[in-house]
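Sat 14:20. Reprocessing the chain from the morning session after the first attempt stalled halfway. Input below, unchanged.
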Amino acid sequence: MIIAKTELTEKLEKEIYRATKKQGVFGCFEVTIGWFGNERVDYMTYDTNGIWRCYEVKVSVSDFRSKSNNTFCGHYNYYVMPRELFDKVKDEIPPHIGVYVGGCSVKRAKKQELGEDGETLKNSLIRSLSRETDKAFSSKEPHLVDALNRRIRNLKTESDRHRKKYWHLMRVGQEKYGDRWYKEDEETVIK
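Finished this time. Tokens:
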């Protein structure tokens, strides 16, 4: 059964993705731990130093207090939540669990021993990354993101060109008619 994510969940996922997106850090959402595992990490990262970080996204008090598993199997483990929720539950957060609010760490995590062996975590991350790649390639438009990014770059270039033309014309107008030529024209139009 697929459950649609709320806007808040998607917002928190984007914030933690941006906060952890660095060279040498590899991450994936919804990583199932182990073969046919029952545990799933909302977001997991692995870095070139061999450090695993697990992030559980929580959007409400009931979600935070839910009996469902918090899969904290990394060296460092974090909750990702809105400020209002953090203010309500901060005293319930174990001392070794960190917290991200608005894409910033507001409570540092303490290093733990791995909850699983590193090889299981690595295999789980690889399988989940492969799943995401499969989704992208089996979509009707696998190169949509690349095409949209090209379009954005082209629009920025075009916008810069128009901005330069505008300021060039402004300078020409100022040289010919003085600094207030366009404001006097606006006043004429208003009358």
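The chain has a mean pLDDT of 85.
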